[in-house]
Design goal:
Blueprint: E1 7-10, H1 20-34, E2 43-46, H2 58-71, H3 94-106, E3 110-113, H4 117-130, H5 145-153, E4 159-162, E5 168-173, E6 177-182, E7 189-192, H6 200-210, E8 215-219, H7 226-236, E9 242-246, E10 249-250, H8 266-272, H9 276-284, H10 299-305, E11 316-317, H11 320-333, H12 336-349, H13 360-370, H14 380-388, H15 406-421, H16 428-446, H17 454-465, H18 473-480, H19 482-494
Parallel strand pairs: 1-2, 8-9, 10-11
Antiparallel strand pairs: 3-4, 4-7, 5-6
The structure holds one RNA strand of 76 nucleotides.
RNA sequence: GCUCCUAUCGUCUAGUGGCCCAGGACGCGUCCCUCUCACGGACGAAACACCGGUUCGACUCCGGUUAGGAGCACCA
């Protein structure tokens, strides 16, 4: 096994946005391929499974490509850059499937079935009601070749079924160990609607073989699909790859992760302002851990640490609070100039950031004083809007600290105005210094508790921000500048 | 219903027979810092599903029970 080339693939079907569960599967495949402790430099392949003509759309192919790139998961082989063409799209490989389909038909390992869908559905219901595993009853499995030819010539609707051998199928799963299924319970599976419309179970086998995939790493929902796929490998004379079935991502109620409990599209998290670093880190730790107490990893560190043996067997609840924690961590670690670039689109979209109205330097300061409060980038808007507005909108009552009366608040603001008017060097440190002195003086004069600076600072901070929560008045004043700061104090005094 | 998978704090997990009256992280609570929020710091509550074996000794091995999940398509 050590000599075998590692080749893994992520094979989504473009029938909707890239699901976070899918993204995690892609991540694990990528990590497995790139990890240097594996059998060598593996290849990670992206294959688009768009055999479902009705539901597959090009825009979803493009979204898959974009989001994977955004995460930093790069593939060695995959569809063309526009997502529209190339041999890594199943829709472009129809002749290949047709060839193998014909082979199976010829060898009588597959056969035409003329049963109507409604008829099948009725039987299925009846079987389940009887308490047996629903499976195809084999009605068309031994039709004479004359009858098949006749039916086909008459244009009777038909599908192609694969003969499932009545025996036990055993295989080794890298995360779960030996697994055995009784294929006799399965029933003959439909592998194509016709020669030109092959279905998943068939195409996945053909492609994984042709693309020389060494390890199939996928979600646990495919575990019970594995035996029938193995049987198809055998019928085709192929050797099947090794398997690793990853635990499912779960809703808080422990059902399979789905919409209605929250967002499941990676793009939704992207839009809300989750950083790819945070999402990668978060997803990696869902169903895997390094066996140490370390919890924070970059993608390249994960590549180094990863081993499939440490993958978890049980499902993992998608805990958004933990994602938020990681995201705020990575936001705080971002270089200031990069964080500004990331936040700017949100401010622009909110109409706060208008080109040329504010210097880059100032904008960076705004982001810097706010970043420790940000769980996701989109929050920059509510956190900083007051910096950009001309007029603040807040209730007079918000200015009140503790049991201050209106005249006390007015006195505090007047004092602030006086103190700040006299400052020559305007920066946060200087402002803080003089205001601390002023606060002591104010409390003494008013008979307020000596150590409680809130009597001076709270009204000031509210006057400058209009908010209950905000950065310190020193930081705000620094960014606002002297003129604006004094103007906001004057506005506040007018309210009293 | 049938088949398969799974089972340690609320959540993600460490733990491969004695190092564990179970460790870390998120979340939660209290306190400190502090004009607020946040950051940071300290402390705290919180789990081996159950029942039988095996063993000198089980969270760890085996069997069963229970619970949860997935699959059983002319979707992937």
């Amino acid at each position: 096994m050590a000599t075998k080339n590692i080749r893994v693939r992520f094979a989504p079907s473009p029938t909707g946005p890239l699901h976070v569960g899918g993204a995690r599967t892609a991540l694990f495949n990528y990590l497995f391929a790139k990890n240097p402790h594996g059998a060598g430099k593996g290849k990670f392949i992206l294959r688009i499974e768009d055999t479902d003509k009705e539901r597959s759309e090009l825009k979803w192919v493009q979204e898959i490509i974009n989001e994977l790139k955004w995460l930093g998961i790069e593939w060695d082989e995959g569809p063309d850059i526009d997502g529209a063409s190339g041999p890594y799209k199943q829709s472009q490989r129809m002749e290949i499937y047709e060839k193998y389909l014909k082979q199976l038909l010829q060898e009588d390992k597959a056969y035409y079935c003329f049963c109507a869908q409604e008829e099948l559905e009725d039987k299925r219901q009846e079987q389940m009601a009887r308490g047996v595993a629903p499976k195809y009853d084999g009605k068309c499995s031994h039709l004479s070749s004359e009858l098949v030819k006749k039916n086909l010539a008459e244009g009777k609707p038909a599908v192609i079924r694969f003969r499932i051998a009545n025996k036990k199928v055993k295989f080794k799963d890298l995360v779960r160990g030996e697994i055995e299924f009784d294929a006799g319970l399965l029933g003959d599976v439909v592998i194509a609607k016709d020669l030109n419309a092959p279905l998943y179970h068939f195409t996945v086998v053909v492609d994984d073989y042709l693309m020389q995939i060494s390890h199939v790493i996928r979600g646990e929902e495919h575990l019970s699909n594995t035996p029938r796929q193995i049987l198809i490998y055998r019928a085709l004379g192929f050797e099947h790859p090794e398997y690793a079935h990853l635990p499912l991502l779960l809703n808080p109620d422990r059902s399979k992760l789905s919409k209605r409990h929250g967002d499941v599209a990676l793009a939704d998290y992207h839009k809300q302002g989750y950083l790819p670093e945070a999402i990668i880190n978060f997803m990696a730790l869902l169903g895997w851990n390094p066996g140490t107490e370390r919890e924070v990893f970059t993608l390249s560190q994960l590549v180094k640490e990863f081993s499939i043996e440490k993958a978890q067997k049980g499902g993992a609840v998608f805990n958004i609070k933990r994602l938020d924690f990681l995201n705020s961590l990575y936001i705080r670690e971002k270089a200031p100039e990069k964080l500004v670039l990331l936040c700017a689109p949100y401010l622009k979209a909110a109409g706060l950031l208008v080109k040329g109205q504010i210097s880059d330097d100032k904008l960076q300061k705004i982001v810097e004083v706010s970043k420790q409060r940000m769980k996701k980038l989109s929050e920059i808007v509510e956190l900083t809007d007051f910096f950009f507005k001309d007029k603040l909108n807040y209730e007079k009552n918000l200015l009140k600290w503790d049991k201050m009366k209106d005249e006390d608040i007015k006195g505090a603001l007047l004092l602030c105005d006086k103190i700040l008017s006299n400052i020559k060097i305007w920066d946060a440190k200087k402002v803080e210094e003089v205001l601390f002195e002023g606060a002591a003086e104010f409390n003494k004069q008013k008979g307020f508790p000596e150590k409680n600076r809130g009597f001076l600072l709270w009204p000031l901070r509210v006057a400058l921000s209009g908010k209950e929560f905000s950065p310190s008045p020193f930081e705000i004043a620094d960014i606002l500048g002297k003129e604006n700061t004094l103007a906001r104090i004057a506005e506040a005094i007018k309210k009293l």
